[in-house]
C-alpha cells in the first residue's frame, strides 16, 4: 500500500534522510524507533508534505505519487499525521475545525459534505474512543489543552478522518501511564484491514500497548535493522548503542525555526 | 524570500469588489470651502437660523485649527480647497415608498446587497441609506413610529424635531473638539438621527448604509443617537465607496447619548475603498465617534475596519454617571499600503464605572496598524475598573503593528489591566490545517477569523457573517 524507496530529505545542504526503503502492506502496523536526531520526525513530515525540505526518491500510496502532492492532496489521498507537537489555533472551535477537516477531504474526493447534525454523531462516537467529554468540542483547537489532551485530540481527529495511512509521530511523548493507555486503546480500536499505521517512538513502552507487526530501527537517516516486535524488546535492553555512530548528534529534528508550535 | 512569505504577500492583491460607481445625475457644489459654501449647504437644506450660526461658529473654529499630526500615519497633504463639499443625487428623494427611489440607486444598493426592497424587509433591519451626502431612503418608518422610535435622516430631523436636535447636537462632540470634527460641524451634509423614548426597547436593529459615489467629493455625515432612560437600541453602520485613483475625504461625527440605564450598541463594518497595492487612491477616513453614558447606562462600540487608505478613528465613551459601562471591540485589518491608527478613549468620571477594550489588529502586505487608546480615570471616579487587551497579528514581514496605550489615573482606587500580544500566522499552523485537508487559503481564513472571534461574537448575527466574509475576501489571493 505504501511504497518508499531511497527516500532522501535535506534542509539546505544538510542531509537528514539518506535513503529510506520501506514497504507497508494493507492493515499493517510498523513501528519506527531510533535515537534523537535520527530523522524519525523528518520521515513523517516527508510523507505528510511539509515545506522546507529537499526531497528525493520515491513514495507512493496505493500507487499514487505522494511526493507530487500538496499536503492537503495527501490528506485527501488518505494520509493522516498525528503531530508530536499539535498546533494551537486560538478562537477556532474544535468541532468546527474537525468538521471543516473532514469535509475538506470529502470535497476533494468528490464526496458529499457531512451536515452539522450527522457530524455530531460521528464526533460523539470518536470521542468515546479517547474518553473525552462533550465540552472538548467546544474549546478552541488545542488552546490551553494539556499535553495529554492534545495527543488525545490527535487520535480523535484520526478517528473522524478515517485515514488509509496514519503516521503517528511520538504520540506517546509527554504522556502519563493513564493517558498512554487511553491513546493506545483508541489507536488499537482504529486498526483495521484497510488502514495501515506507522508508529514513531523512542520507547518500547508504547509498543507494549500497540503491538506492531514490524519494527524498524532508523539511525542517521537510514533504516539499519528491521524485525518483529522482539526487536523493540532488544532495544529496550540494549539501547541504540549497537547502531549509533557519533556523527549524527547535531542533525536537527525540526526543519523550521521562528514559527510557533 | 521564502515561499510562504511570498504567498502571504499576495494577500495584498485581493481586489475590491465594491469598486463600481453608479452613473447618477448629481448636484455638485464647486470645489473649495469658504463661508459662502457653508451658507450654501445650510440654504440647500433649508435650515433654521440657529443651525447656520452653529455651522459658522464651527467653520470659524476650524479655520484657526491645525491638522493633527500625532497619529502614526503617513498622509499626503490634503487640499481642502480641492474638495467639493456638497454632492446630492439630483432627483429629489422621496421617503414614503421604496418604489419612488431612483432605480439606479436601487440597483446600486442591490449590488451592495442592502435590503432596500420590500421582499428583503423580512430581515427586520431598518435601513437609512446615504449616498454621497444625502439620505436617500429610510425603510420601516411606520413600524418604528408605532414604538415611538424616531429614525430618519438628519435633515428631516432638523425640520421635524428641531428641539431634540438642538438640545443634543454637539453635546458630546463640541464643534471645537478636533480639526475634523470642526470641519464636519461646518459642512456636514446629512446623516442619521435616532431617538428612543423612555423605557422603549427598539423593536429592530437600525442600520445606516454609507456610500461615497461622486468624484472629488468629501462625505461628512453626522449621526446622533439619543436613548432616553431605560431604553435600548442596536445600531449598525456599513460603508463602501467606488474605486478611484484620487483620495477621497470622509470625516464623520457620531454622537451617542445614553441616559440613565439606557443601552446603545453601535456596530460598524467599514469597507471604504482601501486604494491599490501601490497606495494610489482610497478613502481618508477621519472619524470622531463618542458617547456619553449616564448612570447605569451602557455604550458598546464594535467595529470591523477592513477598508480606507487611512483610518483615524477612536470611538470613545465618557462614563459620566455612576456605574456606567463602556465597551470597545475592534478588528482592524491593514493590507496593501493601508494605514490605520485606531483605538478608543474611556473617560471614567462616575463612581464604579467599568470599561473593557478588546482590540485585534491584523497587518498584511505593507499595512501599518496602530492601536492607540486612552484610559483616563478622573479623581471623582471611585472604584473605576478597566480591562484592555490588544492583540496584533502579522501576516508577512513588510507590515507593522504598534500598540500605544495611554493610561492616566487620578484616583488611587482604580484597577487598570492591560494585556498585549503580537503573533504571526505560523507556517506550523498552516501546515497543521493543510495536513487535515484544508487548502492554504481556507486555513488562513480560519486562523484569522479565529483570531477575531471575541470581537465577531459581539456583532449581530447578520453583521458577523458579513464581517467574516469581508475578512476572507480581503485575504483572498494570500496563497498561490
- Give the class-level CATH name of chain A: Alpha Beta
The proportion of residues forming helix of chain A, as a percent range, comes to 25-40%
Choose one word for the global shape of chain A.
Answer: globular
- Overall pLDDT confidence of chain A: 90
Radius of gyration of chain B: 22 Å
The low-confidence runs of chain B, each spanning 5 or more residues with pLDDT under 50, are: 1-13, 91-97, 115-124
- End-to-end Cα distance of chain A: 31 Å
Mean pLDDT of chain B: 82
How much is the radius of gyration of chain A in Å? 18 Å
- The CATH superfamily of chain A is known as P-loop containing nucleotide triphosphate hydrolases
Q: What's the number of extended β-strand segments of chain B?
A: 24
Please give the largest β-sheet of chain B. Answer: 10 strands, mixed
Spatial strand sequence of the major β-sheet of chain B: 4-3-7-9-12-14-17-20-22-24
- List the uncertain runs of chain A: 246-261
Topology at a glance:
The complex is a heterodimer of chains A (261) and B (480).
Chain A lengths: L1 E10 L2 E11 L4 E5 L6 H9 L5 E8 L2 E2 L5 H7 L1 E4 L6 E5 H15 L7 H14 L5 H4 L1 E2 L5 H15 L3 E5 L7 H13 L6 E6 L3 H5 L4 E6 L2 E6 L2 H9 L23
Parallel strand pairs in A: 3-10, 3-11, 6-9, 9-10
Antiparallel strand pairs in A: 1-2, 1-4, 4-5, 7-8, 11-12
Chain B lengths: L2 H7 L16 E3 L6 H10 L4 H15 L23 E3 L13 H10 L12 E7 L2 E5 L2 H7 L2 E4 H7 L1 H7 L10 H9 L2 E7 L8 E7 L9 E7 L4 E9 L6 E4 L2 E6 L4 E9 L10 E12 L4 E8 L4 E4 L2 E4 L5 E10 L4 E4 L2 E4 L5 E11 L3 E10 L7 E11 L4 E10 L5 E10 L2 H9 L4 H12 L1 H4 L4 H15 L5
Parallel strand pairs in B: 3-7, 6-8, 7-9, 8-11, 9-12, 10-13, 11-13, 12-14, 13-15, 13-16, 14-17, 15-18, 16-19, 17-20, 18-21, 19-21, 20-22, 21-23, 22-24
Antiparallel strand pairs in B: 1-2, 3-4, 5-6
Helix pairs in contact in B: 2-3, 3-8, 6-7, 9-10, 10-12
Amino acid at each position: 500500500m505504501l511504497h518508499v524507496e531511497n527516500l532522501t530529505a535535506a534542509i539546505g545542504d544538510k542531509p537528514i534522510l539518506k535513503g529510506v526503503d520501506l514497504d507497508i502492506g494493507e492493515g499493517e502496523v510498523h513501528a519506527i524507533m531510533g535515537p534523537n536526531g535520527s530523522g524519525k520526525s523528518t520521515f513523517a513530515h516527508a510523507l505528510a508534505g511539509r515545506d522546507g525540505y529537499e526531497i528525493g526518491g520515491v513514495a507512493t500510496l496505493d500507487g499514487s505519487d505522494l511526493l507530487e502532492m500538496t499536503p492537503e492532496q495527501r490528506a485527501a489521498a488518505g494520509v493522516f499525521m498525528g503531530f508530536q507537537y499539535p498546533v494551537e489555533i486560538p478562537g477556532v472551535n474544535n468541532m468546527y475545525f474537525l468538521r471543516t477537516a473532514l469535509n475538506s477531504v470529502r470535497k476533494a474526493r468528490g464526496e458529499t459534505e457531512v451536515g452539522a447534525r450527522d457530524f455530531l454523531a460521528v464526533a460523539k462516537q470518536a470521542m468515546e474512543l479517547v474518553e473525552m467529554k462533550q465540552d472538548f468540542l467546544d474549546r478552541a483547537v488545542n488552546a490551553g489543552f494539556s499535553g495529554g489532551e492534545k495527543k488525545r485530540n490527535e487520535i480523535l481527529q484520526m478517528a473522524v478522518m478515517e485515514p488509509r495511512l496514519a503516521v503517528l509521530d511520538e504520540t506517546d511523548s509527554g504522556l502519563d501511564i493513564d493517558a498512554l493507555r487511553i491513546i493506545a486503546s483508541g489507536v488499537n480500536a482504529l486498526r483495521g484491514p484497510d488502514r495501515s499505521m506507522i508508529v514513531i517512538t523512542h520507547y518500547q513502552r508504547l509498543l507494549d500497548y500497540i503491538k506492531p507487526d514490524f519494527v524498524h530501527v532508523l539511525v542517521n537517516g537510514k533504516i539499519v535493522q528491521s524485525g518483529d516486535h522482539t526487536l523493540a524488546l532488544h532495544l529496550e535492553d540494549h539501547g541504540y548503542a549497537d547502531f549509533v555512530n557519533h556523527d549524527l548528534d547535531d542533525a536537527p529534528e525540526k526543519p523550521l525555526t521562528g514559527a510557533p508550535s | 524570500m521564502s515561499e510562504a512569505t511570498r504567498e502571504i504577500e499576495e494577500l495584498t492583491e485581493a481586489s475590491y469588489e465594491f469598486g463600481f460607481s453608479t452613473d447618477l445625475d448629481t448636484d455638485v457644489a464647486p470645489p473649495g470651502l469658504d463661508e459662502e459654501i457653508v451658507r450654501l449647504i445650510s440654504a440647500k437644506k433649508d435650515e433654521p437660523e440657529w443651525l447656520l450660526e452653529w455651522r459658522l461658529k464651527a467653520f470659524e473654529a476650524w479655520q484657526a485649527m491645525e491638522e493633527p499630526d500625532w497619529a502614526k500615519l503617513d498622509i499626503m497633504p490634503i487640499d481642502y480647497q480641492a474638495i467639493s463639499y456638497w454632492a446630492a443625487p439630483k432627483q429629489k428623494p422621496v421617503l414614503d415608498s421604496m418604489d419612488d427611489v431612483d432605480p439606479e440607486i436601487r440597483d446600486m444598493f442591490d449590488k451592495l446587497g442592502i435590503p432596500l426592497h420590500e421582499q428583503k424587509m423580512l430581515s427586520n433591519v431598518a435601513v437609512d441609506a446615504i449616498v454621497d451626502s444625502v439620505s436617500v431612503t429610510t425603510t420601516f418608518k411606520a413600524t418604528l413610529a408605532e414604538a415611538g422610535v424616531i429614525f430618519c435622516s438628519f435633515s428631516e430631523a432638523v425640520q421635524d424635531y428641531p428641539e431634540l436636535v438642538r438640545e443634543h447636537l454637539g453635546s458630546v462632540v463640541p464643534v471645537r473638539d478636533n480639526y475634523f470634527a470642526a470641519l464636519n460641524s461646518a459642512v456636514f451634509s446629512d446623516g442619521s438621527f435616532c431617538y428612543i423614548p423612555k423605557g422603549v426597547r427598539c423593536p429592530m436593529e437600525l442600520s445606516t448604509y454609507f456610500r461615497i459615489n461622486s468624484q472629488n467629493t468629501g462625505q461628512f455625515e453626522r449621526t446622533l443617537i439619543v436613548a432616553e432612560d431605560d431604553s435600548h437600541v442596536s445600531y449598525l453602520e456599513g460603508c463602501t465607496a467606488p474605486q478611484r485613483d484620487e483620495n477621497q475625504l470622509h470625516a464623520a461625527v457620531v454622537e451617542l447619548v445614553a441616559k440613565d440605564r439606557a443601552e446603545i450598541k453601535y456596530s460598524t463594518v467599514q469597507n471604504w475603498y482601501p486604494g491599490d497595492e501601490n497606495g494610489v487612491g482610497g478613502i481618508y477616513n477621519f472619524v470622531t465617534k463618542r458617547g456619553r453614558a449616564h448612570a447605569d447606562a451602557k455604550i458598546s462600540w464594535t467595529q470591523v475596519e477592513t477598508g480606507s487608505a487611512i483610518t483615524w478613528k477612536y470611538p470613545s465613551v465618557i462614563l459620566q454617571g455612576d456605574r456606567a459601562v463602556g465597551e470597545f471591540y475592534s478588528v482592524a485589518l491593514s493590507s496593501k499600503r493601508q494605514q490605520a491608527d485606531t483605538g478608543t478613549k474611556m473617560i471614567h468620571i462616575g463612581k464604579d464605572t467599568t470599561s473593557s477594550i478588546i482590540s485585534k489588529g491584523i497587518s498584511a502586505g505593507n499595512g501599518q496598524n496602530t492601536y492607540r487608546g486612552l484610559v483616563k480615570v478622573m479623581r471623582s471616579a471611585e472604584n473605576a475598573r478597566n480591562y484592555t487587551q490588544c492583540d496584533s497579528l502579522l501576516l508577512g514581514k513588510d507590515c507593522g503593528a504598534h500598540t500605544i496605550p495611554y493610561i492616566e489615573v487620578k484616583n488611587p482606587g482604580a484597577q487598570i489591566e492591560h494585556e498585549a500580544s503580537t503573533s504571526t500566522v505560523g507556517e506550523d499552523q498552516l501546515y497543521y490545517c493543510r495536513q487535515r485537508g484544508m487548502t492554504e487559503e481556507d486555513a488562513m481564513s480560519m486562523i484569522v477569523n479565529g483570531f477575531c472571534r471575541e470581537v465577531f461574537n459581539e456583532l449581530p448575527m447578520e453583521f458577523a457573517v458579513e464581517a467574516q466574509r469581508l475578512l476572507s475576501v480581503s485575504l483572498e489571493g494570500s496563497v498561490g
